[in-house]
User: Fold these one by one.
Assistant:
Number 1:
Amino acid sequence: MDTPLVLKILYSLISLAVITIWGLSLGGIVRKIYARVQGRIGPPFWQPFIDIIKTYGKRTAVTHGIMFFLGPVFRIAGGIGTYLFIPAILGSTIFSNFSVSGDVLLVMYFIFFGQLGMALGAGESGHPYSAIGVARGLAQMTAFEVPFALSIIAIVIQYHTLNITTIVLAQQGSILNWTLFTNPLATIAALIALLGMNMHNPFSVVLAPQEIPIGPPTEFHGSYLALMQTNRGIFNAAKLVLYMNLFFGGATNIFALIIKTFSIYMISVVVGVSFPRFRTDQSIKFFLFVPTLIALLAIIILVL
Amino acid sequence: MKKDNRLLPNKDMPDFERDYFCDAHPETVKPLKGFIEKFLNWARANSLWILGFGTGCGAIELRPLMTARFDMFRYGMAPRPTPRQSCVFVIGGYASIKTLKRIVRSYEQIQAPKFVLALGSCTINGGMYFDSYNTINRIDHYIPVDAYVTGCMPRPEAIIAGLRKLQELIKQGKAEKANEYIENFEWYKANQKKVIKDWNMPDYNW
Amino acid sequence: MMKDILKRLTEKFPISEIEEQRANMIFVTMPKINAVQCISYLKQFEGFTHLVMLAAVDYIEDGIFQLTYILHNYELHTDIGIRVQIDRKQPVMESIHTLWAQARTYQQELKEMFGIDFPGSPDIDEPFLLEGWQNIPPMRKDFDTLKYSQETFFPRPGRKHYDPQKYMKEKLYPDKEPE
């Protein structure tokens, strides 16, 4: 409010750059960990950056229409939008982004916005595998949205606010003030939904490189793909920052942010390396049963 | 850059399919100058995305590259399931005419800069299938090849060595075969059409 | 067991030649006109319910194609092969896709590789492996595959040929006299 808008935009850009680098490195680190678990040396952790430079450096590109252009743009708009309305670090002017202008509902909208844009873009590419991937992705997304939304409702009831900054502020003081301990059921439900959101192994049927070449982005190449790769970094980190804020007491400095987001990400990585893949109908059944019931229970307990 | 206004004839395509493909002649894209190209070449060399074309016995030798024993990921190589996103096309051995058609199609769908690594003596001179009625003798008359790996069949170590050699070529800026293909487009097309008798695809598969 | 089947077969069909390869594998040769009838009989009444394969051999010297149908009986664990010789100039044979649906693939391949026609077999004129083949069928013995390859496929100059027997002798046993 005191900060002029220009300065605020500049700060947001800095914060966005930092989170992009962190998100991409996180992906690289996880690939490295995967490799070490499997007894390989693995790619260097900066491999995602090289990949992105290379994909941007492609000389030719073809297009399939307007939505094909807009699909990756929507996707990255979803990622950036998600991040910009979350306060990344509590109390920091640079990393507070535009969190005063939006609440948790807007962030939820942005999380799903990118997927829908992607669905339209992939649909126009005309590749049959894209269509299969989109159908699977949207079905699965609708399923994990239910426990996610329910656990958000539980938190909103608990803190009587939609403002993320207020929710983070309420969790300060002691580790026992975290939502993880004050409302464990909602946290568990939301973390299960995060597994679906991250599309790691039990719920990776959307991309499934072994069966439908790579799902929705089959036809995307060059700069389109590079945009989507960049977004993967931003969006991943943004989701983790949101979860950190809602359930794990937020962060007061950048090291806390890095440690906490890394730990949250490791949950889905550990689940990912230890479980095989669900079919779409199985994952929908799972999401609509276990985590949904847990989240409902959380709400019922709070209301009572 | 001069715009190329030539159109491809696409003689073998029926009229009702004309709307579904592009008639334009492919164009060469000159590499950038100076250190930018060097930097991009470094990135290209360290992020080889492989489209493994599982023809012949080479396919079985490509799989071990992913395992802990050979681990191509440490050099930044990764398998990629779709031609659109990959940049190295690995021809895994003998190519029959039916396969050659798919090879040409996939090769043209890869976006430049693209590199081809051909495995085994079958791709070099026909190998033990040199007198077969259905197997082409040398792949470099149909698509340009950057590096060959000899052997029948080369072991995974040899394939890794070939890929490392390809990385060197890319870093030195010598792997510009994608432009060569466009420059000698008519020659390559004539060769392809000489063996692929039922040409029922566009002249250039974008 | 096999003897009984053979006895019943010889009573019913004009079998010209019997070759007992093993105790549980025999080959019988019969005229083209009786072959499908015989196969049908074996399938329905003798329990040979499995079509193992259908293959052809080109005997260019005799001017015939020899078709071999191999059938398997699961209960007796026996195989029977029915050999049919058809004229090379008019290579037409009755289709057995009505007995085994998968026979269409064999027949499609035979049509493509040898030019043996099976009227009525589904997709018999569709290309199986050779798309757009314009020459004589390549598995026929009068088709010179080396010449075709050299004319069509741009052979790389510098290929050397060795006689395997001589080459191995020179490399591995240079002192040993040939036996």
Number 2:
Amino acid sequence: MSEHPESSAPRVPDAAPDEAVIVATARDIGLGVDASCLPGVVANRALLRRYADLVHGFALPDTCEPAFEYRP
Amino acid sequence: MTAPAMTDPFDALAIAADIREGRRSAVSVMSATIAAIEVRDTSINSVTRIFGPRAVAEAERIDRRLAAGDDPGPLAGVPFGVKDLFDVAGEVTTAGSVVLRESPPATHDAAVVARLRAAGAIPVASLNMDEFAYGFATDNAHYGITRNPHDTARLAGGSSGGSAAAVAAGLLPLTLGSDTNGSIRVPASLCGVWGLKPTFGSVPREGAYPFAASLDVVGPFAGTLDGLRVAYEVMAGGPMAGLPAVADLRVARLGGWFGANMSDTLAGAIDAVAAHLGGLETVELPEVARARAASFLITAAEGGTLHLPRLRRHALRYDPATRDRLIAGALLPAATLVQAHRFRNWFRAQVHALFRSADVLIAPATVGEAPPIDQPTIMVDGQPVSARANLGLYTQPLSLAGLPILSAPLVGTGGLPLGLQLIAAPGREAALFALAGALAQAGLVGRVPLPASKER
């Protein structure tokens, strides 16, 4: 793989510890996460990622709009 | 007034008829209801607060109106309970949490509470729930666990577990709940009572504390099908159009996802329903696992975002199980939430296609009977998984489409209660009530009686 100048910039490693990702993401929305919460949040995040993989794994046409104003 | 004969405590319409026709006073009904809760709820913990003085005062007003020749309405004097996320004027709405316990009392009744009161019914108690409605167990760190009246060593289901258990125990003939992913249908199934999740958007939610606004629906539980129907009509603001003839209804059985994992007993009971209806075609919805996933993700993201301001200030006051789920939901990427909402639109089209050839679909409500409290798991694909998170296996995918679904208690399963979902196209609640009535007449569905020693 060729090197680009930007590649020397700090990057989040692919295998960043879940707890570090949670703390950093939470900081982005102004939320501090107490250490006592981290094991439970890690577990729930892992569950949600599995569900997210299912939803992202389904190809939808570009014309399929989000159902923000849903009418059954 | 002479000493009243005992009215069926499960039958809201019989209670109203007794009061309207002078066989019992509303005050005597209310006093007996409060006494029954005080004595008998200790074993199941379905009630969190009793609105005693105000309920008795309201019953006195009903009696005065009747004495004056006034008509208080079709539910005259009927006591009802509310999941503790419905506003009752003058009371604090906790949504099952200590986080809101210091909030000011509600200034108005929730819209559906107001409509029921206008029909003569009287709110008498708030009912236990999973904190902020996030769970299927009604195992509440602040207010305790609600136990199943059929076996107090087992879960009542949730999140509207107090609402289902109070009806099953014969404490209240009518209660209110909410259903985001199955929170009416799951506890109705496990407690053996009737429950209805109306069409999304058809019953007003004003004054009901939200969870995931894209999915939240409010609805009734009742001890009789007729009681459920009248409560729904009052809550919806008017009577349904006439019920269709059952012979004209095209009924099909949902297979695939909805045919896997259920207990043999439950499968046998549904076979009996299908046989009674002449043998049903089995149909399948596509991509049900993804529909469940989308519902799960939308709930997590909307619930987490709703609570974010409070989580920033005092996350540690939440039930730890609720808190950690909400935080994880608040951290979901926008791309995931948007994709879930896009999938919802696609799934809606698939559901509508199925209803071009069927009027009512039937499916199990839960995989089996209520799990034990000391081992709160269910078996899915051969593995034990958390009941709190997975009891909605059959309800969550259908929530995504916003359909009306009636949870009917199956009769003759020989053990603990099991429920059947009757599912219709949007706005076709009348078809559900028509089919449920026919199945009840055939003795296939109906409130599951408690073991004799526990009946009032």
Number 3:
Amino acid sequence: MPTQPDTEDGQSAFARALFDPSAEPPTDLAHIGGVVPRKRFNVYRNNVIVSLTESLAAAFPTVRKLVGEEFFRAMAGVYIRAHPPESPVMIHYGSRFPDWVAGFEPAGSVPYLADIARLERARRQAYHAADAVALEAEALSAIRPEHVANVVIDVHPSARVVGSKHPIFSIWRSVNGDETARPTAGHGEDVLVARPDETVEMRSLPVGAATFITSLSSGAALGEAAAAATQDNARFDLAQSIGGLLESRIMTGLRLGPDTLAAAEIT
Amino acid sequence: MSGFASDARIPSRAGVGLKAEHYAEIEAGGFETDGAAWFEIHAENYMGDGGPPHAHLRKIRDQFPISVHGVGLSIGAEVGVDPEHLSRLSKVVANYQPGLFSEHLAWSTHETGFLNDLLPVPYTEAVVQRVSAHIAQVQDAVGRRMLLENPSTYVRFETSTMSELEFLKEVADRSDCGLLLDINNVFVSATNHGYSPEEYLDAFPLKRVGEIHLGGHAEDEDDLGDRLLIDAHDREVADPVWTLYERVLATIGPRPTLIEWDNDVPAWAELDAEARRANRVLDKYRDLAGRGHADAA
């Protein structure tokens, strides 16, 4: 059989017309009874926008509750056309959504919306992050004092810190039915998001702790991370933050230098 | 060696598409033994690094065989198959040891990104060559025979030079893949394009069919006010689709049959009732097992 070149058969035109509601359907579609098949082509347009809108709604449910269904769908439509997915793995779709929301003027009256989107993005990432087993409390408490400052802590792959000048944790809880949540305007909140087991957990962080955990995550030793946190806020409380690490179960390993050591070797 | 307690092989019984809404009930087990006997996953939902989806799937895979159904490989794409996505898909198959592995005759990826819908291809010799080459590439990478699913379509192309059936036969022969016969798609496409679903099925290369899909469709109108069916997967399987299903089983005997219900997902009992209905039909044709079983899957 003779080989023919793989000719362009119009997928570029098809893709362009999908995202442009004012465009005519691709010219290579068969007419129906002499008529351009607009409604038929619109089935594909509708499928693309509706399915991607639902992906965003599943990833950002609190954003949707805050702005309402109608506004969310309109906003999602604009985002989808600006940033269609780069990969078929839809559980990761929406990585640019929080930053994009920050610049989306019609949502400007909800100044904390982008940070709520960041929080939800962190929750989604934590949900799908790699699994790891948290260390027991004894592992840390048994470290010899002269080693403490140099210990490098492996932070759970699901752990993420979201900082905000808005009370995002209280807002998130309030919108999702926690009647004890009392968002205070102008009171910023830093949130630790992690999934030590099956459930994504969140906790509000004390001052400096966001810097402390972020430093640890990037590989800084305990002493270094504590110094960075103290520099960030002089009221940083190391003992309290180490207690928080244990409670949130996000420490998965302890090392001195590049080699992973069993706790016994450090102690 | 699968590493799972359950056999990998998919029986010629009814299965259902696995939904997160039903994890707990499926894991608890104890549902009617004449209901779902296996589960199908959308590969892309299990492409995260870890977390609850994998934890649940491991538990379910220990009790049931599963099949892996890709929805994002874009086998018909001009831009080719994305090697990164193919490697993610291979990993899902290697991890969960499915009894069957399938993908669609469609495209969804272009230079502009991923379009998240199963878009149609024209039926030409050039596209036969492209799709066959992509399937060969996929079967090589995944190390499995692939089942290619017939599409539901809403438009036809002026440029097509052959029928959908001729196209599918040609691709299956050249790439030696199996076929996934979606009977709802046959009914939807036949209605939308005005041909007979019975004639289509009678001429379908049934020996290559390793799995059957049944799903629900919605109804709309086209530009002329004619009936236009939408492959919505949001309700029960329609009666004419059950009738066509019997027509196929009468010819080839029972095959693994999946109930697809992906939108407006019902309570577990309602979904499992559809599986029980499919099992009752399969049982009617059980004595035909062995007839026509040839090289599928």
Number 4:
Amino acid sequence: MSDTTLPPVASSADTTPSEKRKTSLYRTDALTRKRNAAEARFKAYGITAIVIGLFFLVVLASSIILEGIPAFTRTIVQVEFTITEDQFEAAEQELFKTRAYEGFFIASLEEQLRQKGIDAPFDSDAIERLVGKTGGTIREFFRENQDLLGQPVAFELAASSRVDGYMNGRITRESIVDSRFLMKSDLYIVDALVEAGVIRNAFNWNFITGADSGVDNPGGAGIGASVVGSFFMMLVVLFLSLPIGVAASIYLEEFAPQNRITDLIEVNISNLAAVPSIVFGILGLAVFIQFMHLPQSAPLVGGLVLTLMTLPTIIISTRAALKAVPPSIRDAALGVGASKMQAVFHHVLPLAMPGILTGTIIGLAQALGETAPLLLIGMVGFVARGYPEGLIEGFTDPNSAMPAQIYTWAARADFAFYEKAWGGIIVLLVFLLAMNILAIVLRRRFERRW
Amino acid sequence: MNEMPHIDKAAEMTDSKISAKQVQVFYGDIHAIKDVDIEINPRSVTSFIGPSGCGKSTFLRCLNRMNDTIDVCRVEGTILIDSEDIYDPKVDPVQLRAKVGMVFQKPNPFPKSIYDNIAYGPRIHGLAANKTAMDEIVTSSLQRAGLWEEVKDRLSEPGTGLSGGQQQRLCIARAIAVNPEVILMDEPCSALDPIATAKVEELIDELRENFTIVIVTHSMQQAARVSQRTAFFHLGILVEEGPTQDIFTNPTDKRTQDYITGRFG
């Protein structure tokens, strides 16, 4: 924005004398130029700030997407084969039953490769490293679907996370160290499988729907159970903090007398909004778990803690929304003989609704992303091992929440979990985005009534 | 005050609808209204005039206890409406406000439909038994406020979409819909243009047949045009009160004369 600042020497030299004689509107005087320059500079600062902000946003979003997308896909080995009833009977007779099924699998995989004219040497250990213990899965399938015996069945088996890493370039031939998880030689088999077209990428539904897995099985880890945990927690937060928060704000704003006690309450609510969330966590641990003996790691307790955290946000935004309703509306209602409560509930509250809803959803979004207090009450990721069995269990069974799950994954040693953590962040952001859109939609809807 | 013998009440039923005696109003430590005594006649228009901050609006708001909503405000003395003390502990201000309606300085229709604006008061007071009765109340209120012809085809449109003058007449219609006996108007025309003002003044003149109207106004011409009696307030004191004619042509107090001739205020 240097185009608006003129050379100072020239301007002061020839405008000052002429100004004294007479001023022309065609000529910008020094003061106006200075003001215009200041304005232009300020605009430039503003644009710079926005550009910097956008830059970081783009960096953040792109890194999240680039790092997180692999978590949503997984490598699948597709093998088609047939087991006859005789083979089934024979396998069931054996001592190591799953071993027998694995034999079928390897045999048909070899057969498939041979048909395509590819010759790659592999043994059962290598297969186990690549796709895990396949025998169990296959046996389970045929025991449940005995009518499919004798028919060709296409099996899609998830490749191990190391193979995933090799397929998406995270692991290279150079970086690999021989271990019980993956040998250098295994990569030749993978290459052969790719050539034969039995390996492909597929969408990883298990990541969306599954529960957390053990530390040695990053491929099986999913965020589903903790999404459910978060959902039950949000239910608790919504149904406690909204009515309590709105009732408290209406009382404070419309009914409470202005005195030292209400001043004190007001100051303390503002202070509570600034209390670090971990403090609420330790409070929850002490009060809800150790004193009241509520179940540990339960979404109910998590929801209670987050309710305490969300309340100040809701109260502050609700009071602001109530304050913004013009007093003339209250006068109008009182003037026709409405009681104070009728004035508030018939006229003031509906007008404040958009503001209240926005505040509530922002509070909920904050609570959804909160991690620290959940760790203190034991809602860590690895407890999210399964789905709750029912509605009540949903509140009381140990579970985790999305951010806590992400934290747990990020803290694990296996690099494959790192990818899961990024993927989890994408899921979390999708939920937050959905909530914000909901806030905007509700706002629009209620505002139209004006 | 229902226990009061009937004869007594009748005897006390003098000409005045509202009778204020030694009214004092305090805002915290500030003594805003001092020793106001006034009698207000039924079915007539009484106007309060005076410079800004003289307490005329404050006194008006005492008449339907709208000052109750202000924490620091305190009222002393007695105000009788139909010989009943409205500051008696037995009186519920909500019930009082149904009897003493109010129209405010700035038109303040509810952000609802024109119909709902009118119907709100009757609805909360249970004045209409069914939809037909409610329609009847809405129609007649709008007719009495002279707004019916202008809005009869768009009753479901928001009241806030009307022009300023129409909004103010809507507020008057809303006030008369609950069938009050007294209507208080706090500078009802100060936000309106001359044509809208003329319409509202005309309306006030018509309403006089059925209601007792007290109006606060900044415009002396307006007071002269619409009111039968005028009260002049100055610095929280009721300086002079009498027939409008007399106040404007032959004021007894020097301050009234100064104000009317435009020497201050």
